[in-house]
Write a structure and sequence with these properties.
Blueprint lengths: L1 H6 L2 H7 L2 H4 L1 H13 L1 E6 L14 E2 L30 E6 L4 E7 L9 E7 L5 E6 L5 E3 L4 E13 L2 E7 L6 E7 L7 E8 L4 E11 L2 E12 L12 H9 L4 E4 L3 H4 L22 E2 L15 E2 L5 H10 L3 E6 L19 H15 L5 H8 L10 E4 L5 H18 L4 E5 L7 H12 L4 E8 L1 H6 L13 E9 L16 H16 L4 E6 L3 E3 L10 E3 L4 E3 L1 H10 L5 E3 L1 E3 L2 E2 L6 E8 L4 E8 L5 E8 L4 E10 L18 E5 L5 E6 L3 E9 L1
Parallel strand pairs: 1-31, 2-14, 14-17, 17-18, 18-19, 19-20, 20-21, 21-22, 23-24
Antiparallel strand pairs: 1-27, 3-6, 4-5, 5-13, 6-12, 7-12, 8-11, 8-13, 9-10, 9-12, 15-16, 24-25, 26-29, 27-28, 29-30, 30-35, 31-34, 32-33, 32-35
Helix pairs in contact: 8-9, 13-14
Length: about 675
């Protein structure tokens, strides 16, 4: 019989084998697959800690031309002739046989904050003398949009007229024109609208003078008529809308290292940024020459976007304002200059006065200024930062003086303190210990680290003291090594960096009793004028693009919840086991369950969900963010290469089986009852 069986064709041999042997490979495969399936147990009825409304916020710093040339909608660079070179950004042109010149005059104490103006002399009644502004790496105008040209002017002699032109990038084509005349011998503001006849990303503005005479000009401005919330002196619409779409719990401003300055003379002083725009004192931006390989000698701060506008933006997007003030210390990586302790009173007074500006009655000095600027109602400031990335005893000594003065006069104001520039080391350990002893409200931790660091630190806050100072994760971003031959500005905002940040953020959310605020940094970058990358949002003069990191931030901030609930595998928090990371929350007001799941593996992950503590669920939504290549990124020309997609999801009796794509961020939201 054996001999006969051996002589049979192979298919007939197989037919004679026992069924269990035939199915053995399939059974083994199914058994292995069953072992690979992980079960996540979510206990909706056992909330652990509260999630603060401020949990996910945004960090704004004027780096990468984020303010002038970016969020601040002004299109003219060096509008008040106060740059180190008074005509930087302008060029003089004699047109059609015209003859004229500019003479920069310093009026000194007559206007100490804005002393310079341009005295334009037109020497001929024929042709034009023009000054042409290049904008911020060009001037973006859109077809059909109206722009308000304005100028402060004073007639000295004759009856000189101004002819305004929007010009193409090469300066040869007019894209819109308007005229101004009738100037008087007293300084006054003159305005005329100009409508663009074509779209141009790198246009120019020509201000041409005709008719023999002498005319003084200052504050030459071109402003889009449409701004965010239609605010005068307002913000660029697409950029502000991207910030609003994040629904941030807070906005930290104005930085960052910008607060410190390279030296104390160049520090950020909020009082110079409020009041009439033409009276605000321009200074050089500290990022102007910080990095020689990205030098920007034309980078200044006009302060058109000042503290009033920051408070207004916070109110407009529903975020808590978090101003950061200089503590009497310049950047310790630059000059390290400090104000002596016995000369710190002006710095402390600035902090006290800012609280009065934000919250004071209209009968107070600074509350009256706020009202005069158009906001009699208080801004309801609740917190303030003292210094940025400072370290050692010299910072601690200054913080103590600030805290004593502020706590005495305004005991309800919460203070944010520095933890130094790094997430570990001697500087970090010293301040963590000393500031906790001082019962500081918030310790500001910063981490610009590799994606691996973020993956390995999802449990960073699991063992932090629950009864001590709270944590503000004030600046963080995953930095990769730059690929060879990288050409795109946005290349550092790769998918792998966003994925690592998403994994880390599950740990922040699980520990929401310790970490009560967090913000990615920096926020904005001009593709032609950046100093630092990666950044959350990139833009040119007309367009903007959210990075993969932006969409991670948006998924978290828009799906926050009110309470953390356990999401466990084998009774343990999910913080990297089998390349999985997870946190879960409920929104008690909406009766919504929110599950965040990150699969950092290159393989698909099979999961079973077991949701307990509820009677039932309705249909929900599964939002997925993923990409096939770790180094993929979004660009202005391909803004949705990595973009969230939604699909329906249904829990049956609190159970769901699902597969997570490789390298994916997933947010599942479902209503429960």
């Amino acid at each position: 019989m054996k001999r006969l069986l051996l002589q049979l064709p192979l298919p007939l041999k197989i037919k004679r084998l026992p069924l269990t042997i035939l199915l053995l490979p399939l059974l083994l495969q199914l058994s292995l697959k069953a072992q690979d399936v992980k079960t996540i147990n979510i206990q909706v009825d056992k909330p652990t800690v509260k999630i603060q409304p401020t949990m996910w916020g945004i960090f704004f710093e004027d780096i990468n031309f984020a303010a002038d040339g970016g969020l601040y909608a002004e299109l003219v660079k060096n509008r008040s002739f106060e740059f180190a070179k008074p005509l930087m950004g302008w060029k003089e042109v004699q047109m059609e046989g015209g003859n004229g010149n500019s003479l920069i005059i310093n009026r000194g104490i007559e206007n100490i904050n804005n002393p310079r103006f341009d005295r334009v002399t037109v020497k001929s009644n024929s042709g034009y003398y023009a000054i042409i502004n290049e904008g911020f790496r060009g001037m973006g105008v859109q077809q059909g949009k109206t722009y308000n040209f304005s100028v402060l002017a004073r007639k000295v002699a004759g009856n000189t007229k101004i002819h305004i032109k929007l010009l193409s990038a090469d300066g040869k084509t007019s894209l819109g024109e308007a005229d101004l005349q009738g100037f008087t011998t007293q300084w006054a503001k003159y305005t005329v609208p100009v409508t663009a006849t074509a779209t141009e990303a790198k246009g120019q503005l020509s201000v041409a003078f005709s008719n023999q005479g002498v005319l003084d000009i200052d504050m030459v401005s071109l402003f889009p008529q449409e701004t965010f919330k239609n605010r005068p002196n307002g913000l660029r619409v697409d950029l502000a809308e991207k910030l609003a779409d994040l629904h941030p719990g807070f906005i930290r401003f104005p930085g960052g290292c910008i607060v410190e300055g390279r030296d104390l003379a160049n520090r950020y002083q909020w009082k110079k940024t409020v009041g009439n725009v033409e009276d605000r004192e321009l200074i050089i931006n500290r990022w102007n020459t910080e990095f020689p390989f990205r030098s920007a000698p034309d980078y200044f701060q006009s302060y058109g976007l000042g503290f009033y506008e920051y408070f207004q933006l916070a109110e407009d997007i529903g975020a808590e304002p978090l101003p950061i003030l200089n503590c009497g210390m310049a950047c310790q990586y630059n000059t390290g200059e400090v104000a002596p302790l016995d000369q710190l009173d002006p710095f402390i007074q600035d902090a006290l006065d800012l609280i009065e500006f934000a919250n004071g009655a209209v009968t107070t000095k600074w509350g009256a200024l706020r009202a005069k600027m158009g906001h009699p109602k208080p801004f309801n400031l609740k917190m303030m930062g003292v210094g940025n990335e400072q370290w050692d005893v010299q910072y601690l000594d200054r913080y103590k003086l600030f805290a004593k003065a502020i706590n005495t006069k305004y005991p309800t104001i919460k203070l944010v303190t520095s933890s130094g520039p790094s997430p570990s080391g001697d500087k970090f350990d010293y301040l963590q210990t000393e500031l906790r002893a001082q019962k500081a409200n918030f310790l500001d931790e910063h981490y610009y680290q590799s994606p691996d660091w973020f993956l390995q630190n999802a449990g960073r806050y699991d063992n932090y003291d629950r009864n001590s100072s709270k944590i503000f994760a004030g600046e963080y971003a995953a930095h990769i090594k730059e690929p060879k031959n990288a050409k795109e500005s946005e290349v550092m905002n790769t998918w792998i960096s966003a994925l690592a940040e998403a994994a880390f953020m599950t740990g922040l959310e699980r520990n929401a009793d310790v970490v009560q605020m967090a913000s990615y940094a920096p926020l904005l970058a001009h593709v032609d004028a950046w100093q630092w990358r990666p950044d959350l949002i990139w833009f040119d003069n007309l367009r903007s693009v959210g990075t993969p990191n932006y969409y991670v931030q948006k998924l978290y901030a828009n799906n926050k919840g009110t309470d953390v609930v356990p999401a466990l595998i084998n009774g343990k928090a999910i913080e990297g086991q089998d390349s999985l990371y997870s946190s879960a929350a409920i929104d008690k007001n909406k009766h919504q369950l929110i599950i965040k799941l990150i699969n950092t593996s290159t393989k698909e992950a099979s999961l079973n969900f077991n949701v307990s503590g509820i009677a039932g669920t309705d249909n929900g939504t599964w939002t997925e963010l993923t990409s096939a290549n770790d180094l993929d990124f979004n660009t202005l020309n391909e803004p949705k290469k990595i973009f969230p997609t939604d699909k329906p999801v249904t829990f049956n009796a609190g159970k769901l089986s699902a597969n997570l794509k490789p390298r994916s961020v997933n947010v599942i939201t479902v209503l429960y009852h």
